[in-house]
Design brief:
The chain is an alpha/beta fold. It has 15 helices and twelve strands. It has three domains: about 1-85 and about 260-285, Rossmann fold (3-Layer(aba) Sandwich), CATH 3.40.50.10800; about 85-170 and about 285-300, Rossmann fold; about 175-250, NadA-like (Rossmann fold), CATH 3.40.50.10800. The chain has a four-stranded parallel sheet, sandwiched between helices. Strands 6-5-7-8 form a four-stranded parallel sheet, with helices on both faces. Strands 10-9-11-12 form a four-stranded parallel sheet, sandwiched between helices. Helix 1 (about 5-15) packs parallel to helix 14 (about 265-275). The chain binds 1,3-dihydroxyacetonephosphate and iron/sulfur cluster. Iron/sulfur cluster (SF4) binds near residues 85 and 258.
Length: about 300
């Protein structure tokens, strides 16, 4: 173990802390985490760990969700500026205007959203549970925010519902084009295409499997195929390769890189534990308003 890893392990024991990390963070950060997973797994595990402090190696909405669900715990973000741009891509006035227009509107808010947006939503979803949750809602009219692409993908699976889409997007996933993917496929014709639903519909139509980061990892691990083209952020390669040393994984030939997730470094994890300064703070009023849709998600996803 390196010196800094030893230091982190010691600080973790002293502070009774646990480290959670998303699959997109740097490999060395994933290596030292106690739990790694997709957004849904991480939000669930945050409610189950017994430690007093959670160090959340991911972007703001993830740490915020952990704090909303666990108000008595200290939630530390190793880099407070690591934020997901999509989390801000919806508008409260627009939500309120649509509520006036539709009596039975359900505002379905992707977990990649600020606590302010969550506070105005009826239920949260992640890419791994959105279909199940939307299908379980009694409402016919669904306002899906912020991610238009995930919304369209789910709408396709729920033909009985009337969807209104937000206009948010992920710059990492939407920069993957059909041309990139077709070229990658030509180079590796036997490879299966695994895509995250934040990709555009033209990518999803070319994919052999569509799912969350955990879904992609589980699919590749269970598959008899040996080669895969990965249409998501390439941080997933760490777990994919750890679980499947004999399989081959390819990018679509572009930089599939989330700069915000990559802000988290091992040094910042150490400093967060050492200084206790980068704590997630949220007013009780906001927390309670954002808690309701998150709890509803955890309940409906069961
Ligand atoms: P997952 O929930 O699939 O881990 O996705 C999170 C995310 O930010 C995708 O860009
Ligand atoms: Fe946000 Fe996209 Fe980064 Fe995911 S990959 S955290 S959606 S910017």
């Amino acid at each position: 173990m390196s010196h800094i890893t030893d230091e982190i392990q010691k600080l973790k024991r002293e502070k009774n802390a646990v480290i959670l990390a998303h699959y997109y963070v740097n490999d060395d950060v994933q290596a030292l985490a106690d739990y790694i997973g997709d957004s849904f797994y991480l939000s669930k595990i945050a409610t189950q760990v017994s430690e007093d402090t959670i160090v959340f190696c991911g972007v703001s909405f993830m740490g915020e969700s952990a704090k909303i669900l666990n108000p008595t715990k200290t939630v530390l973000m190793p880099d407070e500026s690591a934020d997901c741009p999509m989390a801000h891509m919806a508008d409260i006035d627009e939500i309120e205007a649509l509520r006036k227009q539709y009596d039975d509107l359900a505002v379905v808010c992707y977990i990649n959203s600020t606590s302010e947006l969550k506070a105005h939503a009826d239920v949260c979803v992640t890419s791994s549970n959105a279909e199940k949750i939307v299908k379980a809602l009694p409402n016919k009219n669904i306002y899906f925010i912020p991610d238009e692409h995930l919304g369209q993908y789910i709408a396709d699976k729920c033909p009985d519902k009337n969807f209104i889409f937000g206009t948010g997007f992920c710059h990492v996933h939407t920069s993957i084009t059909a041309e990139n993917l077709k070229r990658a496929k030509q180079a590796k014709p036997d490879a299966l295409v695994l895509a995250h639903p934040e990709c555009t519909l033209e990518i999803l139509e070319l994919a052999d499997y569509v799912g969350s980061t955990s879904g992609i990892i589980d699919f590749a691990t269970a598959s008899d195929a040996k080669e895969f083209i990965i249409c998501t952020e390439l941080g997933v390669l760490y777990e994919l390769k750890t679980k499947n040393p004999d399989k081959r994984f390819y990018s679509v030939g572009i930089r599939q890189y989330c700069p915000n997730m990559k802000r988290i470094t091992v040094e910042k994890v150490r400093d967060a534990l050492l200084n206790n300064e980068t704590q997630v703070e949220i007013s009780e009023e906001r927390r309670l308003a954002a808690l309701a849709p998150l709890e509803r998600m955890l309940e409906l996803a069961k």
